[in-house]
């Protein structure tokens, strides 16, 4: 279950959400939708918007509350897609695809992008082999620049995906579980993360010292956790808060 809140600053929005939900700061994973803007002389000011997801408590009293196990990390993700067999029997699946393509195509047109939207079923690397609907955006011409739809670390792409989910869900009156990609960027990024995870795991196993990766959103952290879940020599955990939360890879014999 996700909950969206807004405020003048990111911290204001987070605190409002915690107060409304009655949760503690170490019980939630925060996704920043927009950081807000003060505008110019008060004109064009925009509130910050965040999404709060509740995570499970730490498994032992000895482990610091800001550290999450891979199982807890899974709780920070949106609801996982059903299995491929179940998806084929879900009423209205074709309707969701049609509505999603229609809305996203119109959004892109109004944003000034000359692009096509292709719906595909793709393996969801953050949900252990299941598949989900992905709307892949491609330019109609060789000179079409779609990099502005991705942004730094995919932040704009994530915001576009969130907006599309809300609009499709509102139109269909039910949750729309879908993803948005641009020229296969998200797919390439996820497979690069798996390669990175194994490369770091080898370094940690050889050196005997833990290593922290760059800060990542919850979905990317989940992919790292899953990639190393069965590794014989290392284990993973998440540490930090909000946009600074990151995965650390440590030797299994490490306390």
Average per-residue pLDDT, rounded, comes to 78
CATH architecture of the largest domain: 2-Layer Sandwich
The CATH superfamily of the largest domain appears as K homology (KH) domain
First and last CA, distance: 33 Å
Q: What is the alpha-carbon Rg in Å?
A: 19 Å
Total DSSP helices: 7
Helix content: 25-40%
| Share in β-strands | 15-25%
Give the CATH topology of the largest domain.
Answer: GMP Synthetase, Chain A, domain 3
Subunit arrangement of the protein:
single chain
Number of domains: 3
Please mark out the parts with pLDDT under 50 across 5 or more consecutive residues, or reply none. 56-67, 74-91
Please state the structural category.
alpha+beta
What does the largest sheet look like?
3 strands, antiparallel
Describe the fold and architecture.
- It is a single chain.
- The protein is α+β, with helices and mostly antiparallel strands and 255 residues long.
- The chain has three domains: 2-54, no CATH class; 84-188, 2-Layer Sandwich (GMP Synthetase, Chain A, domain 3), CATH 3.30.300.20; 190-251, Ribosomal Protein S8, Chain: A, domain 1.
- The chain is 36% helix and 24% strand.
- It has helices spanning 10-21, 70-74, 84-89, 93-110, 155-172, 185-207, 218-227, and strands at 2-7, 28-34, 48-54, 115-123, 131-139, 178-182, 211-215, 234-239, 246-251.
- The strands form three sheets. The chain has a three-stranded antiparallel beta sheet.
- α4 crosses α5 and α6 (185-207) crosses α7.
- The chain is globular and about 55 Å long.
- Mean pLDDT is 78; it is low at 56-67 and 74-91.
């Amino acid at each position: 279950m996700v909950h969206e809140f807004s405020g003048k600053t990111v911290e204001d929005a987070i605190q409002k959400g915690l107060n409304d939900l009655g949760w503690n700061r170490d019980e939630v994973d925060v996704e920043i939708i927009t950081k807000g803007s003060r505008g110019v002389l008060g004109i064009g000011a925009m509130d910050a918007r965040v999404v709060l997801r509740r995570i499970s408590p730490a498994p032992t009293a000895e482990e610091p509350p800001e550290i999450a196990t891979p199982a807890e990390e899974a709780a920070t993700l949106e609801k996982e897609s059903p299995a491929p067999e179940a998806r084929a029997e879900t009423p209205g699946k074709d309707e969701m695809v049609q509505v999603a393509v229609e809305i996203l195509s119109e959004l892109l047109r109004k944003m000034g992008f000359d692009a096509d939207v292709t719906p595909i079923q793709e393996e969801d690397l953050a949900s252990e082999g299941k598949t989900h609907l992905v709307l892949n955006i491609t330019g109609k011409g060789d000179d079409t620049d779609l990099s502005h739809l991705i942004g730094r670390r995919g932040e704009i792409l994530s915001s576009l995906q969130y907006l599309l989910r809300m609009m499709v869900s509102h139109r269909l009156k039910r949750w729309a579980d879908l993803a948005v990609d641009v020229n296969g960027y998200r797919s390439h990024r996820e497979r690069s993360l798996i390669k990175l995870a194994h490369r770091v795991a080898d370094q940690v196993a050889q050196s005997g010292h833990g290593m922290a990766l760059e800060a990542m959103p919850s979905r990317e952290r989940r992919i790292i956790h899953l990639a190393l879940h069965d590794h014989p020599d290392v284990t993973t955990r998440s540490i930090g808060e909000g946009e600074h939360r990151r995965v650390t890879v440590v030797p299994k014999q490490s306390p």
